[in-house]
Each structure stands twice: as C-alpha cells, then as structure tokens.
Amino acid sequence: MSKQTPRKQTAAKQATAKRTAAKQATAKQATGGKNPGTRPGTGSAGAGGGRIPAPAPEADGAAAKEFSRRRLLGTVGAAGAAGLVVGGAGGAAGVSAAQDDAPEALSTLGSTRVPFRTAGAEHQAGITTPLQAKGHLVAFDLAPGSDRKAAAALLRRWSRTAEELMAGRAPDADTGVALDAGPSSLTVTFGFGHSFFGRTGLTKRRPLELDPLPDFSADALDPKSSNGDLWIQIGADDALVAFHALRALQKDAAGRARLRWQMNGFNRTPGATAHPMTTRNLMGQIDGTNNPKPSDQDFDERIFVGRDADQAWMRGGSYAVVRRIRMLLDDWEKRSRHDQERVIGRRKDNGAPLTGGSEATPMRLDANGPDGLPVIPANAHARIAAPESNQGAAMLRRPFSYHDGFREDGAPDAGLLFICWQADPLRAFTQVQRKLDRGDALSPFLRHEASGLFAVPPAAEPGDYVGQPLLEG
C-alpha cells in the first residue's frame, strides 16, 4: 500500500475538514442553529457551549452516522419542510447522532394525547377534538342471542381498550401494529343506533331524537352500509395508530357483535399548511367555515343534550348524523372556478363570502349586485345552509374525506364522510337538509349513499364504561 505525499495528506485533511464543517452547518440549519444530538459530558464543546458527541470509528475510519427517525420527526416540527429538504440534500447530516445516544422523545404530533376521561368533562372525545388526519367509521350489530348483559360486557371491554389506546398504551393481546408510536391524538367515540334498544330490551329508554331520519329526494341509500346497533368513530393523526385501534376494537367484538359496515377517511395532516386553517374537501372548497364555536354562548345548547332531557342517561351527550356523500368530481371539475364559487357562495381561494372580506366575515345575504340580483345566489349552498336561513338551526360538522378507488365508468368513488353533531337532529340536520333538498345548487354534484343516526352518551365516569347508566340504570 503506497504512502501519500505530505501534499496529498494535507489536501485530504482539508477536504475532510470542509465536509465536516458543511455537515455541521447543515445540521445547525435543520435544528434552528443548535447542535443536534448533544448530550452533556460527551464529545467536544460546540459553538454555543453545547457538546457534540464524538463519532464512533468504523472499520473504514469514517464517522458512524445514525439517521434517527424520531429526530427527523422532531426536526420537522421545529424547522418545517425546509429542514427536511436540507437534510435530504445532505444525507443524514441534518439529524446525525452517535449510536449510543439515548432515545429522543416523540415529536409533538406523536405525543399528543386526548384523555378518554377528563375530570369534570361530560362529553366523549372526538366531538370537539380538532380534526385528525385519519379516521375510521364502523358499525356493528349485536350477535344473535345477545342481550343487555352481553352488550354491557362488550361496552365495558371496548371502554377499557379505548382508554388504554388513547393513553398510548398497548391493550391485552396487542398486535404490535403501532408499537413505535405515541397516541397521536387518538380518539374513540361510541354511539347507539335505533335498533340497539330493541335488541337489548331497552325500547322504553330510547330517546325520541333517535327516531329514523326522513327520506330525502337526493338519497340513494344502501341499507347494508347504513345504521347499525353500535357505532364507533376513530380518529388519529397517524394511520397506523388509527388502524391499530380499529383492529383492537374489532377483535374485542368477536362473538359479541358482527361488523355491519366500515368507512375509512382522511384529512390534512396537522402542520401541512403554513398556518392552522379550516380544512378543504375534495372539491377544493374550504369546508366548515360557519361551524358553531365552543366560545359561542349557545354552543352547548346547540350541540349537547341538556339537563332537562327526558332520558337522563343522555344528558351531556350528543346525536351524530353520519352520511356517506359521493361527490361527482368529474362533473364538478368541468365547471369554471367562477361557476363553482357561485354554487357554493364563497371564494375558493380563501373561503370568503362573495360579498367580500375574509373567511370569518359574515355573509351579507341582503347584498345585491349592479344587476339587482343577490351577490350570493338564492340557491347557493352557503346561503341555504346558513343558520340565518334556518331559524337559527346549526350543527357541528366534523367530517372526513374518502376515496375508495374508481367506479366502472372511471369516475372516482370519492367524497365526504359527513358527520355532524347536535342536541336534536330534527331541529338541526333534518331542518337544514330538507331545505337543501328543495333547491341547493350543490345537490346535482352529490349522491347520498349511506346514512345513520346515533345517540352518543356522555363520557364514562372514572371506573365506569360508556353507556353504563343506560345498560345498568
């Protein structure tokens, strides 16, 4: 093996120094100017008084670099997409660490936990919880021969599993699907369908608000994908965490209840936009602008069942209307942006009403244009659905988008898993939908293909399970 000349040795050392300096600069940029992977008492002092861990030598003499997944997630939260681009361009330099480093904490996205029970909180999680990136809606029918006692055993088991999963802990006989992840804002919400009460001998305790929804002219409902004895809504900011919960609850139901239908949805991942904003649906429209807000004085009155309800077990609960609404995207996307905005009554770019302002600006329903016609057309979706047009009727919309492939004609089987919450479906969803059914400009682009109405009781008390006051009262 030939020896290098002093000049070649000097050049090699300079090249190595340049590479090391470049990697350190890239790492500082990806971590907000801080030295990554530092631990007290190791390596040499960095520029800011921190410590840079000394690299472990390998057989070829190169520094060992470990690309840590959790450090990458943390970098995304701190430095944004730019940090990822820098890290990607420079290999592992932006998130380097010595192999003997202690594990990093989960990123903000993974560590966020929504409590299954909160002291003093009446409502189940998943109603006012911020929208998550991934969702599953699933309905079960009780197994033949099941009674009230069997239903109670199932709800007790489901509640225990949901509490463990939402805390980021593995339940009994865990599959290991989400072994590496934190709770990721997981929520599990339980509800009872109209048929549940007949199967458990509880018809006298079935609320009037759970009476079946009326038929609408736009309905093309599949009975097999509608209704059900029991309903579960699962939401999480990680797809594996959401699937893990779905699988665990399905296994818990074995022998006690049979799957009736399942729907899978998604939203934007938190942090995907430059700043928090209302979500968009698959038509590209900002969806949910006029939602009631928890800060509204009458929010609880509109969304949650009051203290004077006939059925005491539902006080503090809510009613969920679930609709699978397919969007005729091929037809919609042929329309000009101007036409789309007139169908909705709002601008597509920022959600502002056609009467001007920003997304949060109230619509001026009485404003007319130079032609004397309403600026917001009389059949615009936003106008017809507005509380001002429905005697104050309002519901909390909390949907997921869905895409289930393509139909035989090549059109996308995609749209909205519409979920809305209210204290009384007859005075909220039904009242608004009846008006939409009579002349909404958006209706020709939608097909309502599945439907369900569920009574969602309040959160379980410590040591209890969801629905215990109904099943054991």
Explain briefly what this protein structure is:
This protein has 473 residues and is an alpha+beta fold.
Overall SS class: alpha+beta
Gyration radius from CA atoms, angstroms? 27 Å
Helix content: 25-40%
**Mean pLDDT score:** 83
General shape: globular
Number of helices: 12
Poorly predicted parts = 1-12, 25-99
Distance between the termini: 87 Å
Percent of residues in beta strands?
15-25%
**Helix/strand order:** HEEHHEHEHEHEHEHHHEEEHEH
Number of strands: 11
Give the biggest sheet.
5 strands, antiparallel
Describe this structure in words.
27% of the residues lie in helices and 16% in strands. The protein is built from twelve helices and eleven strands. The protein has helices at residues 6-30, 69-89, 108-111, 148-166, 194-199, 239-252, 299-303, 329-333, 337-344, 381-385, 429-437, 468-472, and strands at residues 44-45, 51-52, 134-142, 187-192, 230-236, 257-266, 318-327, 396-397, 400-406, 412-422, 446-456. Strands 7, 8, 9, 10 and 11 form a five-stranded antiparallel β-sheet that branches. A hairpin with a 5-residue loop joins strand 1 (44-45) and strand 2 (51-52). The longest helix has 25 residues, at 6-30. It is globular and about 65 Å long. The chain starts with 5 loop residues before the first helix and ends with a helix. Residues 1-12 and 25-99 have low confidence and may be disordered.
